[in-house]
Automatic annotation (TrEMBL):
InterPro entries: Cyclic-di-GMP_PDE-like, EAL_dom, EAL_sf, GGDEF_dom, Nucleotide_cyclase, Rev_trsase/Diguanyl_cyclase. Residues 445-600 form the GGDEF domain. This is EAL domain-containing protein. Residues 7-259 form the EAL domain. Gene3D superfamilies: 3.30.70.270, EAL domain. It comes from Paraburkholderia acidisoli. Pfam families: EAL, GGDEF.
């Protein structure tokens, strides 16, 4: 038995606390992101200060043991209403109820009297929001729907609490159609750095827009998470960042929270290494590669195979089936080459076709994705490149596919994927880069678009090989990531040795210079000792002339877009100007070059470590 158990037994019962009116209310603010106003407070209950039942967990645990949970919830609501009325606040009051207590609370009899006391009390019912907690499941939604209707008829609003966990399900949302949905803190904590949580909340947001519900993000504890939620378009939030539950709660936001809501920079949304669009491309059914082609039965002869190939010049192969199940594959070229040999037809024409068939063909279920099929490219058995493969539909023969079509499909998927995330560095690719530039421009946020390139990278790659070149690129990506604030600065990989940083950090200049210095010093370790001693490598230029190349270094060309100038520019124009600045940066000893985006014909002037 725990040491806490005797204390709980010695503590007054919950029934006694209710009878003696010893419960007290505390309130936590709920904030509107649009204007930073406190639109409401969640009323929460506490036991006597310093007692074993002070915490809500202990209080409700004892109530459950005593069988008076519903009575505790009713008393908690009335206590919160009385205390909130004394605060004389015009904001809304959010009250928590389990499904069981809420059902009893709206019934006739004594519980119905309690409901009338609540809705006829000192708080206008229009300012009350009833939150359905996750403490008990709603067994029958059809039976519970009238409960919600009675609440609304009384003038109150209805909210679904802790959505995404326990009993707060999508079916509950769809059937009860709450006015407000509070997203569970699990999905909110660290959302600025968690792509899966970000996508989960974005899905909730889409459903909220379709259902007409307003979202409240619970558990906000820092500015980074708040700004991501704000920029996603989430309406409201609650959490320790705005205020803890207090008897006398804040009437206005603290300066830190107010500044975060009004922050001029936009959030860098956490990006998964592969976006939904990329996944859609990679998960496209392989059926699109299927070629409808006749098959031959297992008992067919080689003459039957020859006749089919002669009548269908388009067939690269023919499948052999037993019933509807494919059992072998005959490649056209290999078969016809055999038939070209002397006396082959006379000797083998009337014999079973299985004699020259591949009895272990590659079988592909037509619902398999292109990405799943890509594993074939890495297999030891490469016969499918010549023979092709057999498509099946739940194990039944459905058609043929060629190795050429597989290679082409996989290549297209990988190219599409690279537009979203670079396969080497896993940094966002061209499409997310353009999307973030558009977000910056549409919000008129000031930023610096920095195009990063590596000098002398091609000679290094030619000399040391692609594997070592890839290591240099990964090192460059790490250096750039280390200088970026992930909540403010967007880092993307355009391709090859080209990167793009969209800086919103005020210290962008120092960060860019630090990246150049760190990379230039660290890149030396990728050279052989003799090349380091010699100051570079010997090679050939593009015209084949012997040339000496110095070490790989980093160059950064920067375009400054002033706050409020977003409407004047497009993402393509910004990228083009950054590329122009990058070309000049490659000629500068400092490695950094800056231009103004609003110059009609920019005068490219070197700025040692900063703006002109």
């Amino acid at each position: 038995m725990s040491a806490r158990a005797p204390l709980l037994r010695a503590a007054p019962g919950v029934g006694a606390l209710i009878a003696q009116r010893q419960l007290r209310a505390v309130f936590q603010p709920i904030v509107d992101f649009e204007n930073g106003a406190i639109l409401g407070y969640e009323g929460l209950i506490r036991g006597p200060a310093g007692s074993p039942l002070e915490s809500p967990a202990a209080l409700f645990s004892r109530a459950h043991a005593e069988g008076c949970t519903a009575a505790l919830e009713r008393e908690a609501a009335l206590t919160c209403i009385e205390a909130f009325a004394r605060l004389d606040s015009p904001a809304k009051l959010f009250l928590n109820f389990s499904a069981d207590a809420l059902r009893q609370f709206t019934e006739t009899g004594d519980a119905g009297d309690a409901a009338r006391a609540l809705f006829s009390g000192p708080i206008d019912p229009a300012r009350i929001v009833i939150e359905l907690t996750e403490q008990s499941a709603v067994d029958d939604l059809r039976d519970f729907a009238p409960v919600v209707e009675r609440l609304r008829a009384a003038g109150a609003q209805f909210a679904l609490d802790d959505y995404g966990t326990a009993n707060a399900s999508l079916s509950l949302w769809a059937r009860l159609q709450p006015d407000i949905v509070k997203i569970d803190r699990f999905f909110i904590h660290d959302i600025a750095n968690d792509p899966l949580k970000f996508e989960a909340v974005r899905a909730m947001q889409h459903f909220a827009q379709a259902s007409g519900a307003r979202l409240v993000a619970e558990g906000i504890e820092n500015a980074a998470d708040l700004i991501v939620l704000r920029d996603m378009g989430i309406a409201c939030g609650q959490g320790f960042f705005f205020g803890r539950p207090e008897t006398e709660p804040l009437r206005a936001l603290a300066p830190e929270a107010r500044e975060a809501i009004r922050a001029g920079h936009i959030a860098v949304f956490p990006e998964a290494t592969r976006s939904a669009a990329t996944q859609a491309a990679g998960t496209a059914p392989a059926e699109k590669m299927r070629v409808r082609a006749p098959a031959l039965p297992r008992h067919a002869t080689n003459n039957d195979v020859l006749e089919l190939f002669n009548s269908r010049a388009d067939l690269h192969a023919v499948a052999v089936v037993e019933g509807e199940t494919p059992v072998a594959l005959i490649n056209r070229r290999a078969f016809m080459d055999r038939y070209a040999l002397p006396y082959h037809r006379e000797l083998f024409g009337k014999k079973a076709c299985m004699q020259f068939a591949n009895a272990s063909p590659v079988l592909i279920e037509q619902t398999m994705s292109v990405e799943q099929m890509a594993t074939l490219l890495a297999s030891d058995d490469q016969r499918y490149l010549a023979d092709g493969f057999v498509f099946t539909d739940n194990g039944r023969y459905a058609g043929l596919g060629t190795g050429e079509s597989l290679v082409r499909a996989v290549t297209e998927v990988r190219i599409q994927a690279a537009r979203y995330a670079n396969p080497l560095t896993f940094l966002p690719g061209n499409i997310p880069i353009s999307s973030h530039i558009e977000r910056l421009l549409s919000h008129d946020a000031g930023f610096h678009a920095c195009y990063v390139d590596l000098n002398q990278f091609k000679p290094f790659n030619d000399q040391y090989g692609y594997w070592q070149g890839d290591e240099v690129l990964k090192f460059a990506a790490q250096v750039l990531a280390d200088v970026c604030d992930p909540t403010r600065d967007f880092l993307g990989h355009v391709g090859g040795d080209d990167f793009l940083i969209l800086f919103q950090s005020e210290s962008w200049r120092d960060l860019a210079c630090r990246a150049i210095q760190t990379f230039n010093a660290g890149a030396l370790r990728f050279y052989a000792p003799e090349d380091r001693r010699g100051g570079g490598i010997h090679g050939e230029d593009r015209h084949g002339n012997p040339t000496f190349f110095t070490f790989v270094t980093m160059a950064i060309g920067c375009v400054r877009v002033a706050p409020g100038d977003g409407a004047r520019h497009s993402s393509d124009a910004i990228a083009s100007l950054a590329a122009l600045a990058k070309r000049r940066a490659k000629q500068e000893a400092s490695g950094l070059f800056v231009i103004e985006a609003n110059e009609r014909f920019p005068t490219l002037t070197s700025v040692p470590g900063g703006d002109r």
